[in-house]
Amino acid sequence: MDELLLNSNLRLYFSAQFISEYNFIGAEIFAKLRTGGPILREKPTTPFIVLPEEARFAPLVKKSRFALDIGGTLVKLVYSTVCERSIGGEPDVLLNFKKFTGIEACLEFIKENWHDRVSDDVLHCTGGGSFKYAEMMHKSLGVKVKRTDEMRSLIFGCDFLLKNNEDESFTYHHEAVGIERYQYKPIDTDSIYPFLLVNIGTGISVLKVDSQSTFQRVGGSSMGGGAFIGLGHLLTSAQNFDDLLLMAEKGDHRKCDTLVCDIYGGSYENLNLPGDLIAGSFGKCSRIGKHSSESDIAKSLLLMISNNIGQEPGVFIRKRS
Amino acid sequence: MDELLLNSNLRLYFSAQFISEYNFIGAEIFAKLRTGGPILREKPTTPFIVLPEEARFAPLVKKSRFALDIGGTLVKLVYSTVCERSIGGEPDVLLNFKKFTGIEACLEFIKENWHDRVSDDVLHCTGGGSFKYAEMMHKSLGVKVKRTDEMRSLIFGCDFLLKNNEDESFTYHHEAVGIERYQYKPIDTDSIYPFLLVNIGTGISVLKVDSQSTFQRVGGSSMGGGAFIGLGHLLTSAQNFDDLLLMAEKGDHRKCDTLVCDIYGGSYENLNLPGDLIAGSFGKCSRIGKHSSESDIAKSLLLMISNNIGQEPGVFIRKRS
């Protein structure tokens, strides 16, 4: 994730890394609540980006904002904080990202961290949980809860980033190494639309987006993050998404998957299928079965699901071209 | 499988069922090898079809034929036998189907059952294993081994069945019950092509077939029978494909899968997604995890893989229409 933002205006920091890179010494918290001045905080322990100094972000210096996306698997919180610069100047406005596996823990966190909230404040929410938990959130936090349609918010956000963030989009080159894999290219703001938006949540939605306000769902599947975490939980000892990814990094999928060369002894020329192509995910597990290593299984699962996610939009793109 | 052939000219029998239905008393095996007469055998213990009385099948009364498809997961054998009719008349020619998980067991079976084989006989083979095991098969059986391209054979076979077997194709109605689900309709032989052929093996290939000899692979995925059996083996105590299907029949996928109503409390109107649609396969397993029942897991796995198989061709069909 960090790698992906190297060429971006909006840089993502994980706090430990930020502290070592910038020799940051924890600033004291001194609340200027009710005086109208900024509430300076320590750098948060969650990943964050430092917002550019632009007029549209200035109100965030005076007033915190919190917003939630409550999906089928995770609750995602984004909120603003203000932080004193280590080397003088105006304070930085940070946009912080935190995820929870349940709404209760999330509300506790918001209560503890949204100090300047008053009853007129609005907690903006998207996702299915914004219907289910609206009353609970209002009672717990004492602020207004406003639902916004998930897909419209998503498209609005994409539009904002593509238009405002230089080099937001990149071409991926699998054969290259490290950062070379991501070939950034500034996008012409006049030629953003139409695009296909593949929304990876618990499941997958593929949207054809014709403008900021016109879109239709053209496809989707039940195999997204929910299947990755759910199957990962059943198949391995990993406790969460990050554990599972770390596990997969060490694995060799060729021990679980049947490759074209396992069936044909090489490539299958008549259909132009190379020998190292995965013919059948987990195909070898019907024999080696429960003796497969956890990391090989995690890698095979990651490839099965991520390849599958890439496939449906690929068909639509071929259709268009 | 049997249900699907009820309206068909070619009826599939599982032997136990055949024996009870037709009150069949095992005919004595008396080999007429070298006399040119038919080699009468007992009804085999494998599933079979009785071939119609047609001139093109007559040579099979005189001479057995054996053919193999050696895939990445299973070895499939089809062979002819001749069987005395229980109620007089000409003997029946049976086409028998048997599957093996390894080539060795298959070759043993062929040796024991292909009595009239001579060195000029040809064992026709398709599949990746026809490359890997050609020499082994020749040495073991003492017959010639001839490879045929898998996809060409498949298309030839489809063409043959669609043209010769009345009501070979049907429309599936999920909401109906039992046999009513399959609405058979004879196919006009002039309008067979073009069609999409979804070949479900270890993995999936989607072929656009324009004629008996012209086709191209337009898609495919690594999630087919190999993934079903491999993951099924890792996740449950089922020992094989049939066990896994029986297990799935008793399961309730809603205990493993996250439905749209689990996220939204009902349907998601903005995207026209009904409440009982699977939003994320195995989405609930990240929480209930290893306490899920085996049959619920098997059902969820079956739906994940079969829905996924249906999806890609669906996109191509929408593309065409």
Give short descriptive properties of this protein:
homodimer; three-stranded antiparallel β-sheet; globular; Nucleotidyltransferase, domain 5; 33% helix; Type_II_PanK (chains A, B); alpha+beta; ATP binding (chains A, B); disordered N terminus; 321 residues; 11 helices
Notes on the protein architecture:
Two copies of one chain form a homodimer. Chain A has 321 residues and is of the alpha+beta class. Among the domains of chain A are: 1-12 and 33-146, 2-Layer Sandwich (Nucleotidyltransferase, domain 5), CATH 3.30.420; 225-319, Nucleotidyltransferase, domain 5 (2-Layer Sandwich). Helices cover 33% and strands 21% of the residues of chain A. Chain A contains eleven helices and 15 strands. Chain A has helices at 15-22, 59-62, 103-113, 129-132, 134-141, 150-164, 225-235, 241-249, 260-264, 285-288, 294-320, and strands at residues 12-13, 40-41, 48-50, 66-70, 75-83, 92-100, 122-126, 144-147, 170-172, 182-184, 195-200, 204-209, 215-221, 258-259, 278-280. In chain A, the strands form four sheets. In chain A, strands 1, 2, 3, 4, 5, 6, 7 and 8 form an eight-stranded mixed sheet that branches. A three-stranded antiparallel sheet of chain A has the order 11-12-13, covered by helices on one side. In chain A, helix 7 (225-235) packs antiparallel against helix 11 (294-320) and helix 8 (241-249) crosses helix 11. The longest helix of chain A has 27 residues, at 294-320. The first copy, chain A, starts with 11 loop residues before the first strand and ends with a helix. At the A-B interface, helix 4, strand 13, helix 7, helix 9 and strand 15 of A face helix 4, strand 12, helix 7, helix 9 and strand 14 of B. Chains A, B: One of its GO terms (cellular component) is cytosol. Chains A, B: One of its GO terms (biological process) is coenzyme A biosynthetic process. Chains A, B: Pfam families: Fumble. Chains A, B: This is Pantothenate kinase. Chains A, B: GO terms for molecular function: ATP binding; pantothenate kinase activity.
